[in-house]
């Protein structure tokens, strides 16, 4: 690990990528993203993450506990230290954990799926604009062994710091690909011989009776409207049986149930 560099001035230009995080994270950081908290930083340093680090910013008291993990950093990745009041002045909101990093998203390859006829499980997210749901679905995808996640243009960024945190770092390790719309997602499925299955409370088939295809694309829509009716009219549709007079689950919860059953079969 490079020698830590103490920073006392919130306006230090070396920390420019960390400034005003709350606002700038909504529009992107020119190929960068923010890693927040010890769990996600450790994943970035573990060798399992699909992304590299540009720098690390820590409260001085966090150095000792992270020293072993930080020893894996390349020598040219700087480790800055600043007190929590200085970190809060830089980021624009109170920093309690004292652990931040800047990741680099450039140069990430398309997901490498197992070739046909091998088994494959891919999750497709359509119109999901809630970072908690996207983070939760990435966590579910990792837990149940999904090979990749596909995102349409309307789905929010899985590398937004809250989505990373909710995913327990899975957004850093699960391969994903941004595609323009549902037509592009279905074209991807056709190229890779994936059978699309659309999950909806109004689905025609029950998930519990499904004979899962060996190569599956599980499509999930946003809370409330769900998947577009015109899309569901073209696909096999699934529902999760529920108690009478109750017809829906949170999309991350529904996704977890569906992924568990499909993966088990």
Overview of the molecule:
With 265 residues, the chain is of the alpha/beta class. It is 28% helix and 21% strand. The model has no long low-confidence stretch (mean pLDDT 92). The radius of gyration is 20 Å and the shape is elongated. The chain folds into 2 domains: 5-104, 60s Ribosomal Protein L30, Chain: A, CATH 3.30.1330; 120-264, Alpha/beta knot (3-Layer(aba) Sandwich).
Keywords for this structure?
60s Ribosomal Protein L30, Chain: A; single chain; Alpha/beta knot; 265 residues; 28% helix; 9 helices; elongated
As a whole number of angstroms, the C-alpha radius of gyration is 20 Å
CATH architecture annotation name of the largest domain = 3-Layer(aba) Sandwich
CATH topology of the largest domain: Alpha/beta knot
How are the strands of the largest sheet arranged? 8-7-6-11-9-12-10
Q: Estimate the mean pLDDT confidence.
A: 92
Strand content: 15-25%
Query: From N to C, what is the helix and strand string?
Result: EHEHEHEHEEHEHEHEEEHEH
In the CATH scheme, the class of the largest domain would be Alpha Beta
**What is the fourth-level CATH superfamily of the largest domain?**
SPOUT methyltransferase, trefoil knot domain
What is the domain tally?
Answer: 2
Query: What is the overall number of helices?
Result: 9
Q: Major beta sheet, specifics?
A: 7 strands, parallel
Helix proportion range: 25-40%
Concise overview:
The protein has 265 residues and is α/β, with parallel strands linked by helices. Helices cover 28% and strands 21% of the residues. The chain has helices spanning 21-24, 38-45, 63-70, 84-91, 131-143, 161-166, 182-191, 229-232, 251-264; strands at residues 5-6, 32-36, 52-58, 79-81, 99-104, 120-126, 148-151, 176-178, 195-199, 205-206, 215-221, 236-239.
